[in-house]
Amino acid sequence: MRWVLIFSLWACSGSSGKNDSAETNAEADTDADTDADADADADTDTDTDADADTDTEPSRVYATLVSHNEQDNNPGCAPVLADRIEFLKNRRSTLDFAEMVVRTGAAWDLQTDFRYLEQLAEWEDAAELAETDGKTLFKYLTDTYPDQIVVDPHNHDTPGINYADVAAMLEAIGVPDTGVVGGFLYYPAEDADWQRFEQPLDALSHPGFSWQGQILWGPATSGHSGPDSEASGLWRPTSAEDFHTDDPTQSLVAIGMYKEAKFEEGDGAGLVELLDDLEAGAFEPGAVITASLFYDQCGFDDAGISDTETFIDSLSDHVDAGRLVWATVPDVVETWRTTYESNPWVHNAP
Ligand SMILES: [Zn+2]
User: Fold this and answer.
1) Given 117, 190, 241, 245, which residue has the most CB atoms within 10 angstroms?
2) Which of 264, 287, 284, 330 is nearest to 64 (CA)?
3) How far is ligand 1, taken at its centre, from the CA of residue 250, in Å?
4) For residue range 167-184, what is the model confidence (pLDDT) as tens digits?
5) How far lies 309's CA from each of 205, 232, 272, 296, in Å?
């Protein structure tokens, strides 16, 4: 038994601002989240030769675990956000997931909306904090495992709260800013909402605070109208109309999650496909191949964590051979900039 299948789709659907009615319908609830992508441990593959021609840099798959928590209108998170006992069980499962990530040598972008942060502030007490060095959960995770766990903002616009407000809440508890936008709309073009990150975004409820997004993770479609982006790679989107084409004059970097990113549905098949293709010689050297495994944080349970651990362990030969690097999203982008000289690579664009 894996995590409760609450959402048939992993992509945040567009109507971030509208919400409740759509979300009570499991079919309509595509807006549960956006997702995923991959990252790798930049430290393990730093190019030792600064003058090396990037054309000769071996292609590798950079993979990342990515999770979302949501707002009260999300059927998976509603019971977790409404009841302290349920919330603290999920906090425990989140710690268990973190320990699995550390144990397996994987990497995780935990992407959070504002409601989970509010309930941490309200419901963590001395007993919980004693388990996490006296620190609130996300501060503990990023302080303790900075090479393997980062926390990024995720948000569905709601009155008074946008991405910059979530970033302000993370800053207030001492979580490092990653610059990662944890989910956005890219299609249809008239609904695309990522261009607002081309300049600092002003918070709505934190006067004087603004946030500069730098990395776009989780391209989703409005109302799940498709086509979903199942691209892999790193590039700088040209425009809303031409999202998957690189324009080196643009500053925002998009990272692809590839196919079947939602782990409870795809069992990691997209990542395995990329690794098999790489091993078979399908890609020219110099490719930063990316994939994500996506999770609903509110659905974390022992069985799902165990399944993920088994899957990650099954890929150890690829890690040992240098084909697979686990890394957080910001670390993948850093490796792309330093080792691959920001050479764009886009595979399987819709
Ligand atoms: Zn979401």
Assistant:
1) 117
2) 330
3) 26
4) 999 999 999 999 999 999
5) 39, 23, 15, 16
Distance 68 CA to ligand 1 centre (A): 6
Label the pairing between strands 201-202 and 288-296: unpaired
Compute the distance from residue 14 Cα to the ligand 1 centre, in Å.
10
pLDDT exceeds 50 at position 294: yes
Tokens at 241, concatenated = 């109309």
Quickly list DSSP for 12-25.
Answer: PPS-SSS-HHHHHS
Lowest mean pLDDT among 52-66, 71-85, 136-150, 173-187: 52-66
* Residue 61, helix vs strand vs coil: strand
Assigned token pair, 131: 């388990």
Mean predicted confidence (pLDDT) in 56-77: 96
Average pLDDT, the chain: 87
The CA 309 to ligand 1 mean position distance, Å, reads 24
CA–CA separation, 32 and 226 (whole Å): 15
Q: How far is the CA of 148 from the centre of ligand 1 (A)?
A: 22
Alpha-carbon distance of 6 to 204, in angstroms, equals 31
Give me the pLDDT at residue 14, please: 33
Q: How far apart are CA 236 and CA 215, in angstroms?
A: 9
Q: How far is the CA of 319 from the centre of ligand 1 (A)?
A: 31
- Please check whether residue 271 is in contact with residue 291, taking contact to mean a CB–CB distance below 8 angstroms: yes
Which residues lie closer than 8 Å to 172 by C-beta, 6 or more apart?
A: none
**Structural tokens at position 202:** 């002003």
Give the count of beta carbons closer than 10 Å to the beta carbon of residue 27: 10
Taking CA atoms, 57 is separated from 69, 252, 294, 341, in Å, by 36, 24, 28, 10
pLDDT of residue 141: 98
